[in-house]
Amino acid sequence: MLRGNMSNRRRINGKNKKMSKKAIKSYRVNAKTHIGKSGKVGKNVSMDARSVKARKSLGVKNHPGKAGENAYANPNPSWTRKNVITGVFLANARGYGFVTPDVGQPKIGAGGDIFIPAESVRDALHGDRVEVKILNSWNPRPEGIISNVLERGKREVVGTFVQKKKGGWVFAEDVRYNKIILVPKKDANGAQDRDRVIVKITDFGDMYSNPEGRVIEIIGHEGEPGADILTIAMSMDIPTEFSERVINQANRIPDHVLPGDLEGREDLRGWRMVTIDGPYAKDLDDAVSLTKTESGYTLGVHIADVSNYVQENSALDREALKRGTSVYLADRVIPMLPERLSNGICSLNAGQDRLALSVIMEMSDEGAVLSHRIVESVIHVDERMSYPDIQRLLELAGKATEMNPEQISCMDESTADADSGMHIGMDKNPIESDVEKLSYLSGESPKANLECEPMMAETSMVRLGDSNRDTTMSDGNLLQKYEDYIPMFCDMLDLSLKIRARRRLRGAIDFDFPEAKILLNDEGIPVDVLVEKANDATRLIEDFMLTANETVAEEFCRKGIPFVYRVHGEPDPEKVERALEFVRKQGVEMEKKRHRISPKEIQQVVESVKGSQAEAMISTVILRAMQQARYEATCEGHFGLAAKYYCHFTSPIRRYPDLQIHRIIHDYLRGRMTPEKTQHYREILEDVARQSSITERRAAECERETEKLKKAEYMYERIGQKFEGHISSVTGWGMYVTLPNTIEGLVRLDEMVDDYFHFDESQMAIVGRLSGRTYRIGDAVRVIVKDADLRMRTVDFELA
């Protein structure tokens, strides 16, 4: 059972445990619709007057029936079925929402989604399948009104219980579920004030009344370590515990390689190979080896053979497909597979024999794949390396393409003397990486470099160190321990730079966004914020994994064997043009040569703003104009990588598509790809790809929301403190300021009171009417933390 740091999670029929004494100081929410600081509720507990007006406009005179009873099937006979579509309603915390049409429904407007104003939502809730009357289908942004709720999306809701005299109210963790759920006293089942609970909806109410429900599980109290993060995960329907059947099946799997498993495998245990991951990663699913040859290199990418232990359609397999991916959160990993597998027999732990699928590639001296073999293998990893250790070794060997200033400042005289024979390479070479950032980094929280004094913003107590560089091992110990491996690491960097240069030439796009690493104490409270930036160590692993993924995808696509591919389609021309118009307003010249933009042209825009204050904003705008990457059973190429063939092969411990294609590879290598087997894969792979795409997006949203929560909690403890930052976006309601540690906050336009400021869209700036003072993207500003909303997970600044 996965409990993280929680101690009080319990089912209702269990005995209530004592509440934790420690609680978060405040649970702030929007004053209009959510719990206030004192636990009171503001306006709009039921539907407001706008909904009444909307109801009258539909001609509904009598009180409607309960939702789901077809109460609003056709309130106005003049409506025609051709103007009605079905789809899923996706709400916004502000009350409005969008309906994504069902598969097979006619496309409406440019984007495909239908905007639903707040007054037209009626009794629909986030995730419901609904009928929508289209009001202006000719408009590029069509609007509609929900006429009927066909199917409820959620029957169990995760939220916070607020105790009342006659029972309680539950405020959903997902702010898009914007109705309070009433819980009668008899159905509270022992829930106490501010408990995090799961409530089962017993009555969905209607336009005028709130849903009612029954508490079926108490997750924990508001202040308990980990309760907040676990609540977010559970609110997104991410499974957090494995069933007894799955655990039992995992426990029956041996914890070591059996002699019978070696049959038919190539023995690579004599090869020198290492794993390179985050300092605290435990699910190690890729190892690398490299040998310099007369004409180039022999690169080996060795991937854990999870499919040997997770058989198709077993309880383990069904659970893995349900989860789709491991989820990496601030205080825990919610794994796709039980720990006995993910951290045990499937993990390529150093010093242990392990089963693998190996891609052995003969590379030219220019970094091109000349030939390759995919083999079933048995391997023995020599060393478990971390990104910080590899990076520091490359720096000490004079091979690094850039040097960490903190490391320079922290080198004492004795270290400098010991390293006097080394030099530091300062030339920064352009690099290319996947537009999705690929998630090849471990996602684990690294330790800070205890020998270095952190850089501080004024009174900020915010670390600006790089968690991919910080290491607690001294230079002398590193050199002594890995002396024999340094030549291989230097060759790896040389090959990595050549691979990256070739990928750059074909037009692959590099969005080099810094990422935050939030460190928590034992109470789950954020105490430090590090910044993760790509460096030579992370890039060389990414380069090798990309090369293996492309090589495997090309072979199976050319053979016409059913497969799962990672697809990134061409962006919509209209979205691209809007993004480029914004870019031009920032003074960046860009013209497309053809109607459709090429990866190379986007690459040139991104490179032209590298190092500027507007880089992050322009990169974000361009990224949002692109399609989301997804899994498909057809090979459609990867736009961001400028690759014709691409798949995910390298992470079967934490991604189901990788596990699925490993099975296909095994069947092919062992001559089992019969017509019947081929047909079987053709029948299941579309569903596998669709499910994998859904769970991937769910995991990404959960990771994003938990990070926003912890950032807001971190800044809540720093209300009143001053920070230096830069403007990352300007809008009609204010300007967003990003601090060096990636935390973003809003300076509201109506709170800039020393002048009459307005948003000038033509300049993409906020301008003072009296003083002419102008704020643009990239401008440096000093701000004071004004507020932090833990429920909405937002931060408010004011100008200092």
Low-confidence stretches: 1-8, 13-80, 405-464
Give the strand content: 15-25%
Helix content: 25-40%
How many H/I helices? 16
Count of DSSP E strands?
32
What is the averaged pLDDT score? 83
- Helix/strand/pairing category: alpha+beta
Question: What's the overall geometry?
Answer: globular
Biggest beta sheet summary:
6 strands, antiparallel
Cross-sheet strand order for the largest sheet: 1-11-10-7-8-9
Query: What is the first-to-last residue Cα distance?
Result: 48 Å
Report Rg. 28 Å
Overview of this protein structure:
This protein is α+β, with helices and mostly antiparallel strands. The chain is 26% helix and 24% strand. It is built from 16 helices and 32 strands. The strands form nine sheets. A six-stranded antiparallel sheet has the order 1-11-10-7-8-9, with helices on one face. A five-stranded antiparallel sheet has the order 4-3-2-5-6, with no helix packed on it. Strands 12-19-18-15-14 form a five-stranded mixed sheet, with helices on one face. β21 (515-520) and β22 (526-532) form a beta hairpin. α10 (486-506) crosses α11 (536-559), α12 runs antiparallel to α14 and α15 packs antiparallel against α16. The longest helix has 42 residues, at 675-716. The protein is globular, with a radius of gyration of 28 Å. The chain starts with 9 loop residues before the first strand and ends with a strand. The relative contact order is 0.09. The model is unreliable at 1-8, 13-80 and 405-464 (pLDDT under 50).
